[in-house]
Amino acid sequence: MESKISDLNVLILGASGHLGCQIVKNLCENHQKDVKCSLLVPSESRDKLNVWEKKLNGKIFCFDVLKDSCEDFVNILKDFTLVLNCMNFFDHEEELKAETRVIESCIKANVKYYIPSDFSIDFTKLDNTEMLPRIDVRKKVHALLNQNTQLKWISILCGIFIEKLLQVSFIVDTKKHALNFYGTGDEEFEISNYEDVAKFVSELIARKEFTKFEYQFVPIYSDRITMNKFGGWLKDVWGGNVKLNCLGRSISDLDKKLRECEKSDKELYYYLQYMKVIVLNKTKIDKIDNQVWPTISKVGARQCLGQLTETGTAI
């Protein structure tokens, strides 16, 4: 049965990040009367929110989820109906610690609804999480959520953000106009972009549609592509030739690279886990089954390649 909500008071965690900022923008500009929105960020990220302070109808809390008191966190959370987690960590151990603290504090504070920081591929289809600690974290987070039905969760699965592929030069080498990948290049995977997902989440909240998806995964995506198709997109943006470099066709080739950078380069280790998910080719989203996504005016992941400047630098 659909729940009824009279006053929707939302707290966004990680509001200074790429996705969080876009969601704040949409809620502040389009839904001030529908949603009372507050933000929580570490003190060092506070200045990034100055642009929204005058439009915000809630509060800004400076709080470090990893370091500050859980008791203080519970006191902050008590006034909120929905907590939206947009935090992101390169370190999977920090990610698990932070989200465990969030969930436990939400339960103690009697928060009704929670959107976890999934925002990725359909990890439920992966049984073997070897060399995929971020997927393992997602599974542990949902095991914790399922231990207590008091906190009603709604999970957004949106494939891989195309901005993440553009962000790491090991994959998209803008200087050499090259796309480096593992596998055959023909494995299909879903991609989205921050702006479109942010619009969807904002509308899902403002229209109170999230109450229809209690304890459910909500899949969305912009495009289904392959690395070879992605290379074609890059060719259109850059003009001329794009080098498609296969660094290894097998999972063992990629696992070897993952082991090499596990301790020495956490950022690359983070991004190469997305590459492994692509090569495994097991996380395909079956269908989009909600009434909100079709109504969103979308930029589309393909258009995000315009973030590549004339000098070939990803921004």
UniProtKB/TrEMBL annotation:
Gene Ontology MF annotations: oxidoreductase activity
InterPro entries assigned to the protein according to its UniProt record, in alphabetical order: NAD(P)-bd_dom_sf (IPR036291), NmrA-like (IPR008030), NmrA/Isoflavone_reductase-like (IPR051609)
Gene3D superfamilies linked: NAD(P)-binding Rossmann-like Domain, UDP-galactose 4-epimerase, domain 1
SUPFAM superfamilies per UniProt: NAD(P)-binding Rossmann-fold domains
NADP as UniProt keyword: yes
Domain NmrA-like positions: 9-243
Alphabetized UniProt keyword annotations: NADP, Oxidoreductase
Database matches in Pfam families: NmrA
Protein name: Predicted protein
